[in-house]
From TrEMBL:
Protein name: Carboxypeptidase-like regulatory domain-containing protein
Organism: Maribellus luteus
Domain of life of the source: Bacteria
Length: 134
């Protein structure tokens, strides 16, 4: 009886680490602007099923370590259209995401305005009345 219990315990201890190692995948890559190819920083990359997420760095690089093979990746940032992709992964994956700018985003459109100002001459006060109260 003790041998059966000991065998079962050893089998369970051997089984769990092997199962957890098989399910870990890494998704990494870059987020770029689709119009000019520049890297986009501070982009939110979220795996919707698990809630695990990260933010891209100044070079647009991101890295996610995920448990599971079926993922839904959602990439969002202000001024660009959202990107969502369903993926079935079996190994570590590199994914380059190219985001499209929103057409109505006024922050990204360069605008030149002419400013006119009129300067008035300085007035000198020569006659000042003073009051002595004490």
């Amino acid at each position: 009886m003790k041998t059966v219990i000991l065998t079962n315990v050893i089998f369970i201890l051997w089984l769990f680490p092997n199962l957890s190692r098989a399910q870990v995948v890494t998704v990494s890559g870059y987020v770029n602007n689709s119009t000019n190819g520049e890297a986009i920083e501070n982009v939110s990359i979220l795996e919707s099923n698990s809630g695990i997420g990260t933010i891209s760095n100044k070079n647009g690089f991101y890295r996610l370590v995920l448990h599971g093979s079926d993922i839904q990746l959602k990439v969002t940032t202000e001024g660009f259209k959202d990107f969502t992709q369903q993926l079935a992964l079996s190994a570590d994956t590199t994914l380059v995401v190219k985001l499209e700018p929103k057409a109505d985003d006024k922050r990204r459109q360069k605008k030149t305005e002419e400013i006119r100002a009129q300067v008035k001459p300085e007035k000198k006060i020569t006659d000042r009345r003073t009051w002595n109260l004490f």
